[in-house]
Every structure is written in structure tokens, then in C-alpha cells.
Amino acid sequence: MSLPPDLLRTAHALADAAAAQSMAYFRTPLDIITKADESPVTLADRAAETAMRAVLADAMPGDGIYGEEHGSERLEAGRVWVLDPIDGTRSFITASPLWGTLIGVLEGARVVLGMIDMPVLGERWVGQTGLGAHRNGVAVRASGCMEIAQARIVTTSPDIFNAADWQAFDALSRRCAMRRFGGDCYGYAQLAGGTVDLVVETGLQPYDYLGPAGLIEAAGGVITDWEGRALGLKSDGRVVAAATPELHRQALAALAA
Q1: CA–CA separation, 229 vs 34, rounded Å?
Q2: Which residues of the sequence carry a binding annotation for Mg(2+) (predicted)?
Q3: Residue 31, annotated ligand binder?
Q4: Which distant-in-sequence residues (6+ apart) come within 8 Å of 181 by Cβ?
Q5: Taken in order 191, 83, 111, 229, is the CA torsion positive or negative?
Q6: Which of 106, 72, 124 has the alpha carbon at shortest distance from 115?
Q7: Looking at domain 7-140, which CATH architecture does it have?
Q8: Where does 134-230 have alpha helices with state H?
Q9: Is 86 annotated as a binding residue?
Q10: For position 1, what pLDDT does the model report?
Q11: Residue 197 annotated as binding?
């Protein structure tokens, strides 16, 4: 199954529009606002999503939108765009380059396109159903890692876990060959590119995981919730992404134990 070319063109236009806004604010003095969930938001986040919505209003006016900053509309539409203008706002605020723009396209309950755009790094990762995954136009694929003991695992921060989930992650990650912290959305890109084998996180929202899900699945990886269920707009925010089905099964079993 291949996607209509206007879908990919629109995704690129969305990423371009977001980057034009976010890069204009990057490494400048910012007013930081604390949202209801205690996560920080800046003028850059809001300006970037506004620009993305303007692109969709012109290119795909009948499609639904599920965005981090400005809410949802037309979720009953056959196609829904899931937008995170700046994933890794804390990285953005502290001038780290490891923040990105996430775009997921849902058709029904299925993610058919996922994009992770890393403006500071100059890397755009795209996964499409039937067309594989690419970084700046070059094909990428998840590693063939099949054993926890050989896996490289990443998560954004210990702070995202509650006590019970941290205990499960800590036990799993200490069985891995390497564990790393602090990657934000870039960890999912690394998994799609074959340099990381496992990403395990909690406390996520649909705009945090659906764009990466489209990329990882197109790269040959597996991504679900901690119970092994497919991710969607109503998932519980606990995510396991793995390079192979076998590694994914082992990770789920370890977390459940």
C-alpha cells in the first residue's frame, strides 16, 4: 500500500512551517508558561502549531487535527493529523538540540505516516506504510537485535515514571547491554535508524507517540503499550518500542514481571 503523494508533501510542508517558527525562537530569551499538567510551554510551541494548522487549513481542510497546543477538531474525519510542534520543550528551553516536531497521520485507527523532524540537527525522519523509513531521503531500518542482554535501551528521564513503573523499567534496563537517558523524541529516530534497540516510556500523550509509531513500524520495528496493544488516541501513555518482534516480546514480559 502506498500513500498519495500529496500526503507526504503536506507532512513536509507542516515540518517546514513548524521549523520556521521554532528556529526563530531557539536560543533566544523566552517566556515560559506552566500548563495544567505542569509541563512548560513557550511562545515557540504555540506559534509553530498555529503555522502547522494554517498549512492544513489550506491543503487538507476536511481532515481532523489532534494537536498539543491548540486542541482537537474533526476527530470523526477519515484522516486525522496528530501534531506536536516541539517535542522536548525542556530541551528547547535549555538550548539542547534534541527536540523535534512530530507528525502522525491516522487513517481509521492506523498510523499510515510518521515523521520526526529535528531542525537543529538537520535530520528529517519519515516512515510511510508500504514505502519504508528514511532519514533525509536515505533508507533506514531498525536493528535485528533479538536479546535483551544485547539491547541498547533509552528513555527520556527517570522523572517520567511513577514508582512502580520505574521499578519495572530499572529492572529491565539493567539487563540490557547499555542504557541511556535524555533523548526525548530522538530516541525513537535512533531506533528506526538501527542505533538503539529499545525505547520504554510512560506518561506520554498521543502527539508524543503516534508520529514515532509510524516511523518505527515503517522501519521494521514494533511499538505498542506495555500490554502489547496497538497505540491510538486513547492509549494509556505507556510505550514500548523495539527493533524486532522477539525483543518486544521479551521486553513486555520483563516489564510485566
Answers
A1: 32
A2: 68, 84, 86-87, 208
A3: no
A4: 154, 155, 156, 157, 158
A5: positive
A6: 124
A7: 2-Layer Sandwich (3.30)
A8: 163-173, 186-193, 206-218
A9: yes
A10: 44
A11: no
Rounded Cα distance between 139 and 194, Å, is: 11
- Closest to 257 measured CA to CA, from 176, 188, 169: 169
Counting as low any pLDDT under 50, the low residues of the chain are 1-2
Q: Which residue has the cell 499538567?
A: 37
CA-to-CA dists, residue 209 to 28, 176, 200, angstroms: 28, 23, 11
Q: Which CATH architecture has domain 148-256?
A: 3-Layer(aba) Sandwich (3.40)
Q: Where are the alpha helices (DSSP H) in the chain?
A: 5-25, 43-59, 89-93, 163-173, 186-193, 206-218, 245-256
Dist. CA 218–CA 157, nearest whole Å: 26
**How far is residue 163's CA from residue 149's CA, in Å, rounded to a whole number?**
24
DSSP label at 203? Answer: S
Residue with cell 519519515: 126
33 marked as binding residue: no
How do residues 15-69 score in pLDDT, each as one tens digit?
Answer: 999 999 999 999 988 777 776 665 667 888 999 999 999 999 999 999 999 998 8
Asked if residue 58 belongs to a known ligand binding site, the reply is no
- Match 528521564 to its residue by C-alpha cell: 157
